[in-house]
Amino acid sequence: KNLPFQFAACVPSHFKMVQVEVVVNKKSVFLPLDEKAKFGDLMKQLSSESGIDVAKQVILYDCKEFRMPQYEAGKLVIYDGQARTVNEDRSLGELKIDGSEPLVCGELQDEWLEDVKWGAFGHTIYEADYLNHREFVIFNGKD
Questions:
Q1: pTM for this model (two decimals)
Q2: What letter would DSSP give residue 25?
């Protein structure tokens, strides 16, 4: 019998699941996520598994640091050692997170801005017109 619409439209499409391993507090946590999941979804699920608040998570992957600090209003901050970029939450696929390599999660303890200046014998020789951002993060801390 011919239906006025395609039957395939009524069947939910097959979602591919990605199993992402995250090493946190000396343990591996395996998070099953939809392939279209965003990085924030991963962080929320990790928060429920590890007890580390999303705003305090510092995740290392592919020689980059990923964070979602409160002062960035839910945006994803990526630091590659040279440049710090602030983006909207991005999908795991865009970030090339496919479960083939583990991620490492640490807990932010403190962060601050530091004056850039140097000198000798109590005299400042050079003082920059910018500040450096510093973080104190513990990886593999006590449970």
A1: 0.76
A2: T
